[in-house]
């Protein structure tokens, strides 16, 4: 009887650990106050692709620069003019900015540093891109 009880308790403990391990307690980087960026509703999203990230790309990468117009010989095929073209590029790992090639290039951890031949982006702009990726790299 004691053997069965110990086996039951061990199995219960494993199930409890699995449930706790799968729970989403948040990443710790998101603020409860989004500063009014999203107009209410979803407090987990603080950076938006259409109004914050895309303009960074347009001003520094995709506007009249290397990653536009989109073509195989332009910017090694990476097109930064829309969410659709970025999402097929493979340079963003949704939810993982640290390991996304896009961030690694912007921060100079992969060579060549981007934007190529220009001054690096301001840290605040890179942080917006990092946050957007960590929040799921949504088309918002």
Q: What are the low-pLDDT stretches, counting only 5+ consecutive residues below 50? A: 4-41
Proportion in β-strands: under 5%
User: Mean of the pLDDT scores?
Assistant: 74
The separation of the N and C termini measures: 58 Å
Q: Which descriptor suits the 3D outline?
A: globular
Number of strands: 0
Defining key terms:
140 residues; mainly alpha; 0% strand; 5 helices
Overview of the molecule:
With 140 residues, the chain is mainly α. The protein has one domain. Helices cover 42% and strands 0% of the residues. Mean pLDDT is 74; it is low at 4-41.
SSE topology sketch:
Elements: H1 2-22, H2 49-62, H3 83-87, H4 101-107, H5 123-134
Quick structural summary:
With 140 residues, the protein is mostly helical. It has one domain (1-140). The chain has helices at 2-22, 49-62, 83-87, 101-107, 123-134.
């Amino acid at each position: 009887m004691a053997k069965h009880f110990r086996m039951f308790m061990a199995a219960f403990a494993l199930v409890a650990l699995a449930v706790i391990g799968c729970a989403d307690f948040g990443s710790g980087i998101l603020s409860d106050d989004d500063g009014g960026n999203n107009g209410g509703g979803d407090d987990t999203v603080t950076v938006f692709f259409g109004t914050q990230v895309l303009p960074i790309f347009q001003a520094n990468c995709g506007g009249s620069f290397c990653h536009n117009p989109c073509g195989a010989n332009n910017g090694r095929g990476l097109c930064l003019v829309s969410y659709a073209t970025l999402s097929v590029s493979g340079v963003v790992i949704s939810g993982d900015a640290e390991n996304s090639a896009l961030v690694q290039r912007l921060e100079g951890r992969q060579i060549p540093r981007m934007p190529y031949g220009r001054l690096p982006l301001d840290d605040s702009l890179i942080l917006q891109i990092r946050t957007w990726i960590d929040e799921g790299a949504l088309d918002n």
